[in-house]
Amino acid sequence: MNTPTPLRRKRSRTPRLLGTLLLAVVALVFLLPFVIQLATTFKTDPQAAASPLSLIPHPFTLASYRQLFGGGSDAVPFPTWLGNSVLVTVVVTVGRVFFDSLAGYALARLRFPGRGLLTVGLISVMAVPGVVLMIPKFLVVQYLGIYDTYTAMIVPLLVDAVGVFIMKQFFESVPQEIEEAARVDGAGVFRTYWSVILPMAKPALITLTVLSFQGTWNEFTHFVVTTQSADHATLTTGLVQFVSGGLGSGTQYPLKLTAALLATVPVAVVFFVFQRHFVRGGSTGALKE
Amino acid sequence: MRTATAATAAVVEPGRGGATSTRRGPTRRGSSAARGQGLWGWLFVSPMVVILGLFLALPVVMALWVSLLNWDGQSNPFSGAADFVGLRNYQDLFTHDGLTRTLFMTSLRNNLYYVLLVVPLQTGLALALALAVNRRRLKGKGLFRTAFYFPSVTSSIAVSTVFLFLFQSSGAVNSLLKWVGIKGPNWFTDARGLVWVVLGGLGLVDPAAPPAALADHGALGLSWWDWLSGPSIAMCTIIFLVVWTTSGTFMLMFLAALQDIPEAQLESARLDGANGRQVLRHVIVPALRPVLFLVITLGLIGTWQVFDQVYVMSQGAPANTTLTPAFLSYGVSFKDAQYGTGAAISFVLLAIILLMTGLQRLLLRERDAGGARVALTRRVRARVRTQRQAQDQAGRAGR
């Protein structure tokens, strides 16, 4: 069956090797910014300015890391940013997975008046681009009197239309018979959802968890328009203030790049742990933003 | 009782139809199972309804109202304290001579350049990477995919910080350029348009002095020179960054489509004597067409929303050449407190993006028809092929 194609056999190996080499160079270009970033975090200010390309820090210093966590006179409130990011991301992710799957289940499986309308509404809401909502969201948050609070940071992110849609699609693919069996065994609606169907949805739940973790951790515009005070700064909004000169003076590039690196590490870890889901698995369709 | 309702539900089952059915059956039928489901259904969707309603639907309606006002953000916009100006905010953006229109048109121009460069670049790069990485005998496939996709995972803010460092005037990029004997520009402060820099470099035009015919005449508040000079060098920095971060995501979409091509089909094409280029043209390209449309339209939708990178890297500077409508809308609202104008810009942006989505729908519909046609001919071709093979075999056996 798997006949090797004669055409391929005949070709010499050199072009293929060259192709792979070229690809390796391109891959290096893709990763180089991160490598330079990592190297710079161990440099001193003058060294980072003098030789921005060098990959070996000399002298090697941990001053940036110490300064981010250790306080000091010109400290950046990095622990505050980190704490806020962790808090918001954890609460939002847990909430999103729960509420999205609840709504997705209802839209896919329960019959209730208005369901069709809600589905249409959901799809049209998905078409509204995020950037357009910046000012409107600010208006509503201010009108509700929750501007610059954790409520404003968290609650609007607790449900996302795309997540509901992913869950809905998944639940529709689960065979009806399983649910019927549960019902026959005497399980109520919530029980059927919670202990029978939800455990089956693990792949979709993992996708949703990873997506909302990544999305919330990297979220920027929402926090820009719903918060103001330094106490509510997250890694993204805090970093921007720091980078665009609101906080630190001078260049301080090693410090800035260290903060940026530490802000990247958690998503990078999640990425490498769930890599299969990103790079290979069938969930690629779910990654469209 | 429970089992009885379950049985009813099971009996009702066939009538349920597809999950997308919107017929209102349950209340009509009046079975207790259906009524219970109605209650649970609304209970289950209530968080979604409340949150999306409050923070998505309501904002759109409120902003639509605000875009009709002259509102400074102080008074109550719903009590009549703010001037109702109707469509004037919109009109001013396009027809009223003044700073607002100049800025808006400049931002539109910048974003247009951005779209025209980013969309082809990211699509082309993603496609090239996907084709390269999909080769069967490539060693370290997974490693390459990871490398190309990784920038897409990180936050736009963090990578913008890195690019700020890389593209400073004495930064890594310019050091690299110095090695090959090119004097790099001041990436973030150079407002010159790329087209004119290149033409100037070739000695065709004087980039410092625009021809009078272009500088003196214009459209919509900008001179032809403004419209035609190309994206500024500062904008090019943002374009580099964005292409670098997004092509990985699109590569994955292409890759998924490539892997959906049945191996047997590729094999049979090769057995039929098709060479590499023919396989690419007759099998791979048709299979990729739908994803290509998707990637381009997603790109068109995404590129009209560029905000984060502008916020971090340039704040619209130099000389407003990286100002985009999204950033202008933000600045006009939060810095200048002209919320009516800001909201109007948002809705013009929405209109542009909806137009792009509409375009996608139109193209996708054509694609569906085309796809069906391709699938049909493919099936016919496959059947002919198997018949021929069967005949060959029969012939050989007969001999």
TrEMBL record, chain A:
Q: Where in the cell is it found?
A: Cell membrane
Q: Name one Pfam family in it.
A: BPD_transp_1
Name where it mostly resides.
Answer: membrane
Q: Which SUPFAM superfamilies match?
A: MetI-like (SSF161098)
Gene Ontology cellular-component terms listed: plasma membrane
Q: Which UniProt keywords apply?
A: Cell membrane, Membrane, Sugar transport, Transmembrane, Transmembrane helix, Transport
Report which superkingdom the organism of origin falls in.
Bacteria
InterPro entries tied to this protein:
MetI-like, MetI-like_sf
Pinpoint the ABC transmembrane type-1 domain residues: 82-274
Q: How does it sit in the membrane?
A: Multi-pass membrane protein
Positions in coiled-coil regions: none
Biological process (GO) annotations?
A: transmembrane transport
Query: Which parts of the chain span the membrane according to its record?
Result: 86-108, 120-144, 150-171, 192-213, 253-274
Assigned protein family: Belongs to the binding-protein-dependent transport system permease family.
Output this protein's name.
Multiple sugar transport system permease protein
Q: Which organism is it from?
A: Kitasatospora kifunensis (Streptomyces kifunensis)
The lineage is: Bacteria, Bacillati, Actinomycetota, Actinomycetes, Kitasatosporales
Automatic annotation (TrEMBL), chain B:
Region annotation (Disordered) maps to 13-32
Biased composition (Low complexity) is annotated at 19-32
Q: Per its UniProt record, what InterPro entries does this chain match?
A: ABC_transporter_permease, MetI-like, MetI-like_sf
Q: Name one GO cellular component term.
A: plasma membrane
Q: Locate the transmembrane regions by residue number.
A: 39-66, 112-134, 146-167, 232-258, 279-304, 337-357
Keywords, sorted A to Z: Cell membrane, Membrane, Sugar transport, Transmembrane, Transmembrane helix, Transport
Q: Which intervals hold domain ABC transmembrane type-1?
A: 108-360
Q: Which CDD domains match?
A: TM_PBP2 (cd06261)
> Which cell locations does it reside in?
Cell membrane
| Gene Ontology process terms (BP) | transmembrane transport
Q: Which domain of life is it from?
A: Bacteria
Q: Which Pfam families match?
A: BPD_transp_1
State the Gene3D superfamilies in the record: MetI-like
Main localization of the protein?
Answer: membrane
- Family from the record: Belongs to the binding-protein-dependent transport system permease family.
The name this protein carries in UniProt is Multiple sugar transport system permease protein
Please give the organism.
Kitasatospora kifunensis (Streptomyces kifunensis)
